[in-house]
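Prompt: For my understanding, could you write out one protein's sequence and backbone structure tokens?
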Amino acid sequence: MENYDTQIVFTIFSVPINWTIVSTWIVMAVLVLLALLAKKGISANGKTSRVQTAMEAIVLGMRDQIKEMSNDDPIKYLPLVGTFFLFIAMANILSIFPWFKIPTSSLSTTGAFAFAVLLAIPYYGIKNAGIKGYLKKYTEPTIFLLPMNVLSDFTSTLAMAIRLFGNMCSGVIIGSILMLLVPFILPLPMTILGLFSGFIQAYIFSVLTIIFVSAVSPVQKDETLINVRNS
């Protein structure tokens, strides 16, 4: 498996830019272009373009899934979770081009995703339940589990990064081997299988993100306030 982090494409002011960064920029550019096309398709007469219709269907689907998983206001989590899903899914779609290097097959990319989730956990936890309500989760069911509960946040997000990295790498490696063995028969089925697997990984990563960032819900905040008032 090639290490895209060590493959330098060009430099900017003596700063080396590797294939992982270039591929990330390409995915970002495609997503921004699709967003602009969807925005352009909005008209005053109520007619919508196909791009806008497709984008609205994707956003509505993600919103419903987030609401079901978090039992909370989905708009709150949509920017973070939606960005993860769209980025991973688009990176997988672009992998149909032989020259494209999947950025999520680099541990630096998946590690950055996990770090973002790690920062989002206390952000949404405090936003939902306040500082006291958020810190309370680390002392449940007993304060003696405080070190383990804190460590759990780090290990869980690290596991997310390694899971995504490993699945993407294994998919690329297996696909490459099979393509070499039977190059004229398997390309299309393997491409379809790879796309399906990539969407599954995007879905799993997004679902895990929802579970982690919505672990402390506004309901718990209300319960905390009641307990404080009664004490």
